[in-house]
Amino acid sequence: MLRVTGLEVSYGSIRAVQGIDFDVREGEIVTLIGANGAGKTSTLHALSGLIPSTGSVELEIDGNRHNLRGIAPDLRVGLGLVQVPEGRRVFGNLSVRDNLLLGAYRRKDDLTKDLENVFRLFPRLKERLNQRSSTLSGGEQQMLAIGRALMSRPRILLLDEPSMGLAPLLVREIFRIIQAINAEGVTILLVEQNAHMALKIAQRAFVLETGKIALSGPADELARSETVKRAYLGG
Amino acid sequence: MTFFAQLLQQIVNGLALGSIYALISLGYTMVYGIVRLINFAHGDLLTIGAFIAYFCLVALGITPLTLTIAILLAMAVTPLFGYALERFAYRPLRDAPRINSLITAIGASILIENGLRVVPFIGTEFRRFPTMTTAQWILMQSTDEFGQLIKVTISQTQLLVFFVAALLMGVLVLIVDRTKTGKAMRATSFDMKAAALMGINVNRIVSFTFLLGSSLAAAAGVLFALSYPQIEPYMGIMPGLKAFVAAVLGGIGSIPGAMLGGLILGLAETLTKGFISSQLSDAVVFLILIVILMFRPSGLLGKAVKEKV
Description:
The complex is a heterodimer of chains A (235) and B (309).
Chain A: E1 2-11, E2 14-24, E3 29-33, H1 40-48, E4 54-61, E5 64-67, H2 73-79, E6 81-84, H3 96-103, H4 112-121, H5 123-127, H6 138-150, E7 156-160, H7 168-183, E8 187-192, H8 195-201, E9 204-209, E10 212-218, H9 219-224, H10 226-232
Parallel strand pairs in A: 3-8, 3-9, 6-7, 7-8
Antiparallel strand pairs in A: 1-2, 1-4, 4-5, 9-10
Chain B: H1 2-35, H2 42-60, H3 64-90, H4 98-118, E1 127-128, E2 136-143, E3 149-155, H5 156-178, H6 180-190, H7 192-197, H8 202-227, E4 230-231, H9 237-250, H10 255-275, H11 281-295
Antiparallel strand pairs in B: 1-4, 2-3
Helix pairs in contact in B: 1-5, 1-8, 1-9, 1-10, 2-3, 2-8, 2-9, 3-8, 5-6, 5-8, 6-8, 9-10, 9-11, 10-11
């Protein structure tokens, strides 16, 4: 579904991502784990087209192959590649309802079913519909950020650190919902520092270290590997 | 009584001038809200609007109908200049340090002003802007202790200013609050990258903002020319600067702030003219700017901006 080859991102003379290759297959949950500054967010920003990059990013949707080079971020959303950014970044000056409606900005069809679907996953959002999103708690904002992204009917959802800053109970809740979204047919690329949880729900994983892929393989295998345990799982 | 009548008269005049400032100020504040740029060429869009209406009125003669046509024409054509300004001067610099686009804005302003001066059919001379009537209505009248008649009046032009300004601000608020594009504008001003990630074509939203702002500036230009019926290529500088002060006073980035700031500034200017000295009125306006920057830089209705990490 997504094939990344030789992806490089540079900020001036700093090469944040140094030619990485990875792929995500249809229906999978794939996780990209790594420490702070390993290049995870840069990779996702490049995939969404927010920052310039070199290398190739290919998206295959229903047998149609799209080379994403030079395609603007908003058009990538139209193709089905949607990102939930790090730090949630909900529109704090707008209501929960307006945030959700903006998620569906490019769509012109009926949104009733999609809204129902979001409320089924996140009943809390329905109660807060008319509230300004800046008044939501961190967990609720994360739910809104995911719900907002779902409104655009993504085929592949890029999630950047959805567990960041959340209480452990909420982290489990968010990961359960990610699995539920995946079960409904949305392919997931999950970027996480919480490697423990990410490896639990993912089928495959890539470990990013200072801009390069250090390890890759089935998630359960990586979870057992000594290097990963030492570096990312705390023992 | 005399004082009271004078005060009331200056308030009427001040609110009329203030509504014009408010219209201009909205353009500054919306553009700043979206791209964090002070568009110093904004005042010159007012000049362009006034000239478009001028040629239209000279060609057609002035009647209520042709005036409406002139205002609409100015509001329809001026945005093309605003669009071009954004597309060719500011957009290439969007990711450059902010000072670059600020300097470009000043350059663009000088370019438009002097560009208009060399256009043969505009030139450097002052032209008389066609006006309708000097009809005015008496709001209040009485006689003072010497038997002299004192009146508080509102002119037809002032009424027109109030009406057009209120109508346009109402429409603007509806667009920004209720429409999908308006919501996308607010989302983009809150977080441009997140807006792009939601599938919003950010460039189109920025263009739309410039179109809206220029259109309001054009309307303000026509109203300004009707109130002070003399036009020339530099005419936009002072009202432009004052509307900028109004935007800062109200809290730049805030739409209600721009409206409030415009009205306050119009009042401050005419009250100074009426009761202190007409030479001092401009000084008072910029004194307000200095005071607001010293004591409340985020303006009356603006929020203190936290630097994003």
